[in-house]
Amino acid sequence: MTRQMTGAKMVVQALKDQGVDVVFGYPGGAVLPIYDEIFQQNGIRHILVRHEQGAVHAAEGYARATGKPGVCLVTSGPGATNAVTGLTDALLDSIPIVVLTGQVPTFMIGSDAFQEADTVGITRSCTKHNWLVKDTERLPHVLHEAFHVATSGRPGPVLVDIPKDVQFASATYTPPKQVRTSHYAPRVKGDMDAITELVEALETAKRPVFYTGGGVINSGPGASQLLRELVDATGFPITSTLMGLGAYPASGQKWLGMLGMHGLYEANMAMHDCDLMINIGARFDDRITGRIDAFSPNSKKAHIDIDPSSINKVIRVDIPIVGDVGHVLEDLLKVWKARGRKTNREGLAKWWAQIEEWRKVDCLAFKQNGPAIKPQYALQRLEELTKGHDRYICTEVGQHQMWAAQYLGFEEPNRWMTSGGLGTMGYGFPASIGVQMAHPDALVINVAGEASWLMNMQEMGTAVQFRLPVKQFILNNERLGMVRQWQELLHGERYSHSWSEALPDFVKLAEAFGAKGIICSDPADLDDAIMEMINHDGPVIFDCLVEKHENCFPMIPSGAPHNKMLLGEASTKDAIGSSGAVLV
Amino acid sequence: MSALQIKKGSSKHSAYNLRPNFSDTQERHTLAVLVDNEAGVLARVIGLFSARGYNIESLTVAEVDHASGLSRITVVTTGTPQVIEQIKAQLGRIVPVHDVHDLTVEGPSVERELALLKVAGDGDKRVEALRLADIFRANVVDSTLQSFVFEITGTPEKIDAFADLMRPLGLVEVARTGVAALSRGA
Ligand SMILES: Cc1ncc(C[n+]2csc(CCOP(=O)(O)OP(=O)(O)O)c2C)c(N)n1
Ligand SMILES: [Mg+2]
Questions:
Q1: What is the pTM of this model?
Q2: Are B40 and A127 in contact (CB under 8 A)?
Q3: Sequence ranges of the domains in chain A
Q4: What keywords does the record list, in alphabetical order (chain A) (predicted)?
């Protein structure tokens, strides 16, 4: 059905036709016509955030917890510029979001009008694609195309900039089905010759390892299912990046734990010593590879990725397969089964024996001694007490984030939202709001550092207003802990500006917003306090005072290869050479 | 063959076909990039090169198919084989990009550039400039008693050579279009 309507009405109609049920936004002059339309309908819920950055992270959280695109609506100028960090975050983590910005009317563009910013110019390099719509006639097409681009191929953020006169003017609305499909259609099926080559490698490998990433999650729940089937049928060990946690269950037998800079000993050693590396939807990020020229020196490498530009970007691979993880794994399993489900059993048995040796190092072991709560202990208790729940975990960025990845177990995809690529402090709290909107009855916990959490603390207002019972579990070490750790290792223990001073009283802060605050500093009280947080029907700020100088291990120091991991305080002396010190 | 005289065998999804044989030698490649003729598309392409630190030796752009609204961007770039592969893959990722062709590897191609050169002088130098222009098959498109403007088409090397010869004869200004290129044959 095509109808005449205003541009503003088209926006709301297009969102409905795209199946959007919630929009995170903040009004302003340049989007008033759209807000007027939102006021006059009930189908779409609008969540009023307290800062546009919060809107974008909330949309990211929503997208990651549902697999559906998240949607934001913000005004021109400062509204758009405040969205930039979130857009960049979504670009680096390949999260599908659609950001709609208001713009000054077309006839004022270029005049330095009030709240004018060159939004498409500013966001060109932090979106997958963006559009400035100068004609209401084109608006329906662009809006539908925006959803198509955000969600197909490698997902990512898109932005549609809509001048105010375009919102007021009327034209014919076209629903998604009648819109001419765009040429943009990335390939999803993998090349069968390459897949067969990989199967041959699977059949003979003596020391294989699956190295999986966010691409598995992005490919959908079906891809995680296929991955589980492949891992369990082959009996190969599997590790994952920070982004891919949950695609294979943490309780699974073949699970080695996360790899990378703060990954597990057994995972990194397996990557270093393997003879076949099967990268599924990961991108050889520098947090993973460590020193490039010493990265897994003796392995044949296969790489499955939907983005051709990921192939050979950092690490030269032997078997590149461009395609969607789900599609490729389906074909891979088919071919492997048809050829008789072969693996090198003898080699695998030896390989697993070696892995068991590495596991004995027990790299995550710690001692909860002394009067202060160790952050690792806090997370271990949190894991224990929340495991059975319908649980979603977000994080901020820093040591607490790495500890959360190490000490919490993820059994399902889409249960773990963390800023991986950009490492954005201030991500977790708004993301938790987005997740809770998607899953109102679930237990949504943001594992935070006190410094990160303050970066978007204004969103307490959003949580309270919309009765979103998000739990803010702050591991408060009164330090920019991760910065401090690097200063200890790299800068002669000169702790330049890496502590949190003048911190608020988090309990009073919670109460000031009309929420619940809990403080805990004694390990003996921790379980009860966590239970109190879980059982409270409403948002909670949990101020967990932890050991202030705990460092996060294992750690691959900058410029070092995987087999040169630091396992604890004793091994840190002169660990980073001058060539490593320039790396971030 | 499309209306744009571009051969099949696009390199857009080339990661599989082009097995790496990486070396550290710098190569010069001419890429033809077919894009939707929409606002900002050139900024996207140029922004990609600057953001990722790739070289641009020359870049030309113009609409080539009005009916379907397609423009053709010809980029001459240099880099190691790995970098060239990355450039092509990254270009292929840009949403309004339809196709990326590496004319340097997809068979023989012709490359032409147009330049205008202003040469001022009198006496023997003026005569010599005219004589050389004749040898290079450059046309005089403007003349005064003190100056000529020559128009020359050819490969970038030919234009370089002509400009070098004109320099001692009073070259004052050069305007070049950058390279346009097409594959040879049907
Ligand atoms: C927006 C932003 N600014 C700066 C940084 C650099 N940075 C990384 S971790 C960190 C410290 C985080 O402190 P906190 O949130 O308390 O976490 P902790 O490491 O103490 O667990 C900083 C400043 C960043 N990642 N993001
Ligand atoms: Mg801290």
A1: 0.95
A2: no
A3: 3-178, 192-359, 375-545
A4: Transferase
